[in-house]
Amino acid sequence: MRKIAKNLKGTVKYRQIVASIKQIGLIEPLVVHREKGSMGQYMLLDGNVRYEVMKDLKIDTVKCLVALDDEAFTYNHKVNRLSAIQEHFMIMKAVKSGVSETKIADALDIDVAQIRKKRDLLVGICPEAVELLKGKKATSATFVQMRKVIPMRQIEMAELMCATSNFSASYSKCLIAATPTEQLVDKECSREVEGLSSIDMARMEREMDSLAKDFKQIDEVHGKNVLNLVIAVGYLKCLLDNARVVRYLAGNYPEILTELQKVSESRMLEADMDQ
């Protein structure tokens, strides 16, 4: 079992786990693996902090997941963290189910004001922009900036953030700075950014407008291009299933055969089709 750092019990994360287990019990089970050559002995693969919390709370029995493989990489590395939007929907679902905001705050060991802030995260954000950013790492500060513009611009901002994989508040502020005045909710709202002159702002606005148009154009043709390539690769696979064709290429053009086989075995196009 992995040792816990001595200063861990003083961290916010540890206090939140303590509060959560006290209020609603263990949500995420511990993951264990049966030790070879021993009866009833298990190795803890994931959940060291939760285990330490339950020891402090004098909890003797909990449900565990029994892993078939003795490896902790999957549990420690391949864990999906909740996005701000997912947190919002979970809180809304809990509130609709009758759970009070105070109880949710107690379970997460945070102030009620923080729960209300998460609850109101998407107020003023259009559904199309929410759908684009669902599952992305957009922060609450990003949505604060997005509320400053009209729905159409919100969608454009979401598309640009997805295209660049940049969901930071600083990037969203730059997008606001490059937004035409007529697309702002408050026309009197200042778009000034520290270090940028009015000339720089005007140039940025033109460049962002050009970038948005280029992005839409590329987005329109990308799907068609990928589909054409998938069809071409399918035809190539049919050719390589023909033994006579493979023998001919192997005898006369072995380098070309190698490259064609690499193309036919590629999974990149399948990933693009799934997106």
UniProtKB/TrEMBL annotation:
GO terms for biological process: chromosome segregation. GO terms for cellular component: chromosome. Residues 15-69 form the ParB-like N-terminal domain. Residues 79-259 form the RepB plasmid partition domain. It holds the Pfam family ParB_N. Gene3D superfamilies: Conserved hypothetical protein from pyrococcus furiosus pfu- 392566-001, ParB domain. InterPro entries: Chromosome_partition/occlusion, ParB/Sulfiredoxin_sf, ParB_N, Plasmid_RepB. This is RepB plasmid partition.
